[in-house]
Amino acid sequence: MAPKQKYSKQDIIVAAFEIAKFEGLDSITIRRVAKKLGSSIAPIYVNFYNVDELIQEVVKKAFEVSKQMLMDQNTGQPFRDIGITSLRFAKEYSVLYRDLIMKNNPHMKYNNINNAIVIEQMKKDPTLSGFSNEEMKMILFKMQTFQTGLSVMVAYQLFPNDFNEERIIEILDSAAADVITAARLRKNGSFE
């Protein structure tokens, strides 16, 4: 008799991530993951206390995927790269993006730790030189608001047919330039 196939914790997370990618987080069940692996439910319960713990790991994997996409984007303009990465994640992982962003779930509450990491990236961007941390937080919040709306439109394919990725990125760039220009004017007292 052939030995039983062993599945690592990572194998289980990858299988659950694939389910979430195409069907959403709510589609992850212990039985569905086991079926995807071609196994019983036992290996899953050996590695995870319950399905919520597994879903939390899938969310972490989504952040890892997004972080890798950001590293791959790396054009030397970190602020722009963050926005473009969000748009690309929304397009490539649209079902998962909608679950993470559009549903009220405990996995995506406003996170000051993640924002602190983004602020550190923003400090490396020459277009944002001279802004204090508080000013950068406000610029980030305004751009997150705009970029989330833009990414939702990408995830739901709400753009006219003649809008390709390049045109959508131009819209993102234009909004970022407007937000940064307004922040500079406000900082210099020229804009109240």
TrEMBL record:
Domain HTH tetR-type: 6-66
Annotated InterPro entries: Homeodomain-like_sf, HTH_TetR
DNA-binding region: 29-48
Organism: Peribacillus huizhouensis
Origin superkingdom: Bacteria
Lineage of producing organism: Bacteria, Bacillati, Bacillota, Bacilli, Bacillales
Keywords from the named record: DNA-binding
The protein's name in its UniProt record: AcrR family transcriptional regulator
